Amino acid sequence: MKSLSGIVVLLSLLTFISCLSGNQQINKSGDENKMEPDIKRVGMVIKIDSSRIKEYLKLHADSNPGVRDLLSKYHIKNFSIFLTKLDDGNYYEFGYYEYTGTNYESDMAGLDAEPRNKEWLKICDPMQIPLKGEKTWKKMEQIYFNR
């Protein structure tokens, strides 16, 4: 019986050390037996052509499947786009997503190579205006997260 409790303590310690190493986190449900990979959170911003907002919104309506399944295929979750008009009179989009895969560069290259994604971008890209010095969405630095 003593050796069994020692094994349980050792396994608990190893699980704790694994969580501290940053490779895994305890599942949001609090179930210590279910581990989830680290999540890469990505925020980005781009200007949008104000004369094409209605068309852009229609493309992104919930009823339009677009490339939603491709986002899931490449481990992109909780993708959200927000729109606002700032004091300078321009409209800007803020995009946010969570990447849950294990090889970000490879998955993004895979998504970029998808023919349907290329077609989607041919439609959407002309409606967007990259910020000065950018070729597409400007990635933002995450400075805070509250779990």
Describe this structure in words.
There is one protein chain. This protein has 147 residues and is an alpha+beta fold. The protein has two domains: 2-35; 39-140, Alpha-Beta Plaits. It contains five helices and seven strands, in the order αβββααββααββ. The protein has helices at 2-20, 53-59, 68-73, 104-113, 115-124, and strands at 24-26, 35-37, 40-48, 76-85, 91-99, 128-129, 138-140. The strands form two sheets. Strands 3, 4, 5, 6 and 7 form a five-stranded antiparallel β-sheet that branches. Strands 1-2 form a two-stranded antiparallel ribbon. A hairpin with an 8-residue loop joins strand 1 (24-26) and strand 2. The two termini are 38 Å apart.
What multimeric state do the chains show?
Answer: single chain
State the shape: globular
* CATH class category of the largest domain: Alpha Beta
Counting DSSP H or I runs of 4 or more residues, the number of helices is 5
Q: Can you give the mean pLDDT?
A: 81
Describe the protein's topology:
Elements: H1 2-20, E1 24-26, E2 35-37, E3 40-48, H2 53-59, H3 68-73, E4 76-85, E5 91-99, H4 104-113, H5 115-124, E6 128-129, E7 138-140
Antiparallel strand pairs: 1-2, 3-5, 3-6, 3-7, 4-5
Question: Would you kindly provide a brief summary of this structure?
Answer:
This protein has 147 residues and is of the alpha+beta class.
